[in-house]
Design brief:
By secondary structure, the chain is α/β, with parallel strands linked by helices. The chain contains 15 helices and 12 strands.
Length: 353
Amino acid sequence: MLATGCRLLHSSGMGRLLAPLTGHRGLVFTLHSVRPQSRMHGFAPNRHLTVTPEFLERTIVQARAAGLRIVSLAEALDHVETDDPAAQRVCAFTFDDGYRDNLIHAYPVLRKHEVPFTIFVTSGFVDRSSEIWWEALERIVRGASSIETPIGERMRTLDASTRDGKVRIYDRLLHWFTKELGEESQRVELRRLAAVHGLDLAALADELILDWDELRSLCRDPLFTVGAHTHNHFALARLSRTRMQDDIAAGLERLAAELGVTPQVFAYPYGFEAAVNHQSQEVVSQFNFRAAFTTHPGMLERKADRFAMPRVSMNGYFQDAAIVSQYLNGAPFPIYNMLRRIRDGVSLRRTCS
């Protein structure tokens, strides 16, 4: 929906006309994995989390050509608070979780263009003590011909012998993991599946996630800032208040112990509505962060709640300059968010009726 709207705004020229009203102070991009285009075609359900280094570079160039000043996240927050309505709009780049390819493939591009950036680090991933469950689930389903799992309170065997079958199974497991199982139960089931299908979860983290030495090397570059992202990457809104506090505190303790840093910014794991509620925002506000970021799409505005700041996701399915142009001027987000509210209201009425 968002991508289609962006293309229509771009082709019609309406996005450019709306920009003075919708561009506000600028935006913060969020990315996850950055790596060259995979030669593998077919089953890749997490492809939306990956963009190419070339697309990252094109976006940097495009943002500057559109008149935005690329700044650190701290500078972006300063800019939101400025009283000067004529100040140049800004753009900041952030990366979630701590993927190793941020160092291998994104960092050379960022250094080349002198782009400040923040990585929101999930310390349990770096410790290899917590599971990157969505990546693990993809590996399990990709390598299996069938999967036995207790969805619906009884064991059932799901056929994973075809690509379509894998897509259906992954989508069903994804729904089960994120909507039906609790956060702790989700990880227990993942460990069971990994043991059955021979996937080494620690080795997967070794492959995909930065280690502490690599993060220490990045810390020597003034372009780089560490952000907090909890220890276990649980959806905070699905935890008790005490578990939220414990997971945030554990992440901060590990970052301080290994990197000697006290992050001033926080990103909610997942960052969408089901993972961020009023209670989680209240808990995060107790940790003296300057701001906390969601993945709710929108532009930087002075009136924004600093513990529910918006970010614009760079989606691997839509590596398109026309779409980026609309992200940069902010035109699609008021429309998109209005439609989301209408949809959610209809869903709520159906549930209550």
